[in-house]
Amino acid sequence: MEKHQMNTGDKNMVHLTIDGKEIETPEGSTVLRAAQQEGIHIPTLCDHPHLTPYGGCRLCLVEVKGARTLQPSCTIPATEGMDVITDNESIKKARKFVLSMIFSERNHFCPFCQVSGGDCELQNSAYEQDMTHWMIQPNWNNYLVDSSHPYFTHEANRCILCRRCIRTCEELVGNFTLGVEERGALTMVIADQGIPLGESSCISCGMCVQNCPTGAMMDNRSAYHGLKSETDTIKTICTGCSLGCGLEILVHDNQIVAINGDYEAAINEGIICKLGRWQQLEKLETSINLTTPLLRKNGQLVETTWEEALEFAAEAIKTTKDDLAAIASTELTTESLYSFKHLFSNHLNSNIVTSTETDTYSAASNVLLKNGILNFEGNIKSVDTADCVIIIGEDLINQHEVIGFMIKRNLPKGTTFVNIDSNTETYGSLANCTMQIAEGSEKDAVRGIVASLTKLGLINNSCEGVKDIDTLVQKAAKGTGVASETFLDAAYAIAKAENPVILYGPVITRDDSADALTAINCLAGLINGKMISVKGKANSLSAIQLDLDQPLTNPTSIKTAVFVLADDSDSDGLLNNLMSADTKIIFSSVENALTKAADVVFPVCNWAQEEGHFINMSGSIQWRNKLMEHTKNIKTTNEALLALAKVLGFTMDSDWESALLARPSSVELTK
Amino acid sequence: MAKPKISSDWLGGCSGCHMSFLDLDERLLDVFALTDIRATPITDLKHPDEDGVDVGLLEGCINNSAHIEVAKMMRERCKILVAFGDCAVFGGVPAMRNFFDLDEVMRCGYINTISTDSEGMVPTDPELAVPQRVQSLNEVVKVDVFLPGCPPSADAIYYTLTELAQGRIPLITGDYLNWH
Predict the structure, then answer these.
(1) Residue boundaries of the structural domains of chain B
(2) Domains of chain A
């Protein structure tokens, strides 16, 4: 798959004329791309700027001087001296005929379709050709409607067989679920070997729905809720995990209509996963929002005012400040995390001030940072251009899925995938080299690879400087339980690569000794590879930079516990030890088990209502936009924290940027 | 020159296109000034003049033998026949029933509805029109002007009628062209 973007860098240029305009375009680009580059419009249906040209619909037919027939501009390469006409009577006639054939192939009835009225590329194309009616009747066969999938429906009556969904599934997501069966008029888009979508290998990313030009792939939730032309589009980022994908969210009347991936976002270039497109929204809509502060009186949580709730919380905090634990979610904005740290650490000097990901994602990195090894992590974007990906102890099939897509879609292009894990089942047979290692033996595995590279003469020296390489390989094989031949296989695979990337998970970063991370750093140096820690939740890195990665030690003597969670519900039960505190103060957007057990509940905004900064796993400082207004009696988390500080009599600032930069970072922070 | 005569009728439709025609509001007066409105479902005359009219508008799809009769009569008596709205142009919403067996459709409408008691039956009176699969108007008779839309907007109707009244064939394009 070649990305069809205009790269004028090192390519030879060709010159052609389109509609009398002289155009210079890189060799290898198509007539369509050359025309688009100059703002010349050619109608298309099966073409998508992020997919390989297919030449299926024939709507983009153009006249090429000297050619016997009209040519599809999306697949014909631009050549030197070419003379192209994009619109005349014979082209118009051909396009109308093409559309007539498409309309007659299935059953397209606009009045009851959810994309009619602006969002349907087929309807728009017909309007563009001034089609008032069909010259040929519809097919009238009743085609399959597959509604077995929880998030979207496949309405085959509206399918034009452009295969954009199929190309999306393989080229952008690397999942290869969609395909076609049969041929000619019997051709049908199917999942796997023709089974219902809901039972198929579909991973519900919904990219096919986003890229479908007609109403054939229908988003169950957003269908009929509003067209793009009738809604506002807000660009923002996903805060479902630490990747921070760009999103385009359709909003109307203070409600979210639909969520799409933002093709202009550098991090994800349009692709998003089921969490970003559907599940976060589903959670938002099925949760019970808190609308007013709550205070426990005579054992019962009752509604109260902000003033009373703040007074009560301030009193509890003041009287027990020597036995106070304050825990913040790593899904909060950087602004909120900074206010939290400022209040509880700088002003109150509380015993425990940390985040819900305590001690998890930074222990090993800290060891390297203390040794003066700074910014040792690379950018996640390098995964997409890597010719070898080594994953150690991280599940990118179920977590941080979009990184998994970037890896999977590159495998058919020859990217080597080495998987080192104590549980390698997740990736099935995707990896070229699988090393099922004994739990906790990651450092042995990495050292073994380094030794194997040395043994095979693929690198000049190892970091350890031990003479007897064979012993080292044997030792690694023994420690990991993996055959020494497998180490040699992996070493071969890795040594061939020019741009290798090593991705690793919490099993590496939470290791206090940092042995495994040191070994990875050594390997990365030897093979000239990038190393990337995938981290955890949306703002893990901010929390780390603000020193909110302290261990949760000795929580038993705590009298007052403050949980600033917003959308987080502590599903891991990390806060259980603190639930015995005398006073529990919670900042939450929704009702949950924690708020029910609390003494004071401050209702705060959810992710759709609060804007602010987030730092992704690669150090990109990004802005999350507000999508909707909050109800009257709740505050943003940051406002609530500032209100509490005011009642406590502290002055607060908002200089989170200097605070972030004060601590050395494992990855360069960039805006 | 005498004012062009205009007639209309509705077949398998919801009368929504005629309601959209009434949405011309005060512009109806312009239409009356330019044209001679003859038989329509919303005026007293029920059949177009036997010696013919200039323009005929037909709303709705063809879904039984009576519709075919009316369509053919309109075709005979109208110089210019306009397929008025999505049902006449494409088959429209009624065409959804083509995806089911006709007997099943009749059972669904006359027997299986919640409000039908045990006496429910599909009407069999020989005087009734015979139902058939839904067709667009141009499958049955020649159509001169297609005005799609569900319904066509009052603006599109006004444009179409005023163009026809002045002896021009309207080009339905831009904002006037809507299939929904």
Answers:
(1) 5-92+132-176
(2) 13-87 (3.10.20.740), 114-121+136-286 (3.30.70.20), 294-360+540-661 (3.40.50.740), 366-533 (3.40.228.10)
Among B136, B173, B179, select the one facing A130 at the smallest CB separation: B173
Å between B136 CA and nearest CA of chain A: 9
Chain A nearest-CA residue for B170 = A132
Query: Which residues in A lie closer than 8 A to residue B172 (C-beta atoms)?
Result: 130, 132
Please name the residue of chain B whose CA is at the shortest distance from the CA of residue A111: B180
What is the β-pairing status of strands B131-135 and B62-64? Answer: antiparallel
> What distance in Å separates the CA atoms of residue A415 and residue A418, rounded to the nearest whole number?
10
Class of domain B5-92+132-176: alpha beta
Q: Say yes or no to pLDDT of A441 above 60.
A: yes
Distance (Å) from the alpha carbon of B47 to chain A's nearest alpha carbon: 27
- Residue A575's pLDDT band, with cuts at 50, 70 and 90, is confident
* Separation in Å, CA A317 to CA A127, A321, A560, A596, A645: 66, 5, 7, 20, 11
* A430-444, A554-568, A613-627 — most confident range: A613-627
- Does A623 reach chain B within 8 Å, measured CB to CB? no
Cβ pair B179:A137 closer than 8 A: no
Average pLDDT, chain A: 92
Whole-angstrom Cα distance, residue A446 to residue A432? Answer: 17
Instruction: Please answer yes or no on whether B143 and A130 come within 8 Å at the CB atom.
Output: no
Q: Which residue in B has a C-alpha nearest to residue A132's C-alpha?
A: B146
Distance CA A230, CA A217 (A): 20
Contact A53, A75 (CB under 8 A): yes
B150 to A111: CB separation less than 8 angstroms, yes or no? yes
Contact B179 A142 (CB under 8 A): no
What is the dihedral angle through the alpha carbons of A514, A519, A524, A530, rounded to the nearest 10 degrees? -30
Please say if the pLDDT value at position A651 is more than 50.
yes
Chains A, B: CB contacts within 8 A come to 56
Provide the shortest C-alpha distance from residue A179 to chain B (in Å). Answer: 26
Q: What angle do CA A565, A569, A572 make, to 5 degrees?
A: 115
Residues 6+ apart with CB under 8 A from A114: A215, A218, A223, A224
Confirm if A242 and A255 have CB atoms less than 8 A apart. no
Chain A interface includes B136 (CB < 8 A): yes
CB A172 within 8 A of CB A164: no
DSSP per position, B41-67: TTSS--S--TT-EEEEEEESBEEEHHH
Instruction: State how far Cα A443 lies from the chain centre.
Output: 29
- Burial of residue A547 (number of CB atoms within 10 Å: 0-12, 13-18, 19+): middle
> Averaged over A275-289, what is the pLDDT?
95
The closest CB to that of B93, out of A111, A117, A140, belongs to: A111
**CA–CA distances in Å: residue B1 to residues A223, B49, B166:** 53, 18, 11
Q: In this predicted complex, what is the ipTM?
A: 0.93
